[in-house]
Amino acid sequence: MEVFLGPDGDPRCGWAGGAPEFLGYHDTEWGFPVDDDRRLFEKVSLEAFQSGLSWRTILAKRENFRRAFAGFDFHAVAEFDEADVQRLLGDAGIVRHRGKIEAVINNAGRAVELAAAEGSLAAYLWRYEAPAGEVATPLTASTSPTSVALAKDLKKRGWRFVGPTTAFAFMQAMGLVNDHAVECRVRSDVAEARRRFTPPARR
């Protein structure tokens, strides 16, 4: 993986230098383990919206998405109806794509079901923590065996817009895999955070 030197002279993952707003996200969020259900649902949802677009577009609109989708409280989003769909289609602050909007509302309902069955959304998702050493598959650089398994199970449970690539991007961001470049300054910080973190599935 390419690296770039940040303003402090330390190496980061190459993509962190792609836009000014990427550096803070890379250094403080990407890869650090998350067990908060709202944040997990938010990231699944934003990854669905990113499909076919750039992460820069989605990151720039993240606060707008939060306002539009009730802070990604999936219990609240699961109650959205056609009037909410029309409201969201008219919201210039987000990505106005009916299929993706309806997918997030559908997925909120599926998240409610999962949380009820597993105790929390986090408890379910952290069962898919990648084994030590697993990274993106060489042929695609965007999926892994674990992301394929997660996407398959979510699809079976009725989730939409969560394929293996989306699942792997979610896993990278939420700490289920440490995919920082070996040379990246943040990789060791993430490794330590993951070492101290006890996944809900094992509590």
UniProtKB/TrEMBL annotation:
Pfam (any one): Adenine_glyco
Domain of life of the source: Bacteria
InterPro entries linked: Adenine_glyco, DNA-3mA_glycosylase, DNA_glycosylase
Coiled coil, from the record: none
Protein name per its UniProtKB record: DNA-3-methyladenine glycosylase I
Lineage: Bacteria, Bacillati, Actinomycetota, Actinomycetes, Mycobacteriales
Source organism per UniProt: Tsukamurella soli
